Amino acid sequence: MNFNFNQLAILQKFKSARERFTNNHPKFPPFIKAVADNALMEGTIVEITVTTPEGKCYSSNIKLKEDDIEMMKMLQQLDQ
Which has the closest alpha carbon to 15: 72, 71, 78? Predict the structure, then answer.
């Protein structure tokens, strides 16, 4: 895969941002790894809830399909 300089710069920024995120939230990457290793299968339900500082909640869920899992595996490869 060939990258141009702009794409390489974006990947480097992503790597830096990921490192800062991991430093800010050290328990989250092991959680994601455990999910990826043990729960990433068709039919798994992923639910996300976001609560603002004011207490307003947003919530949604998805039931994973095979295509979703393939995409998540591709995202994992970006992190290697």
Answer: 78
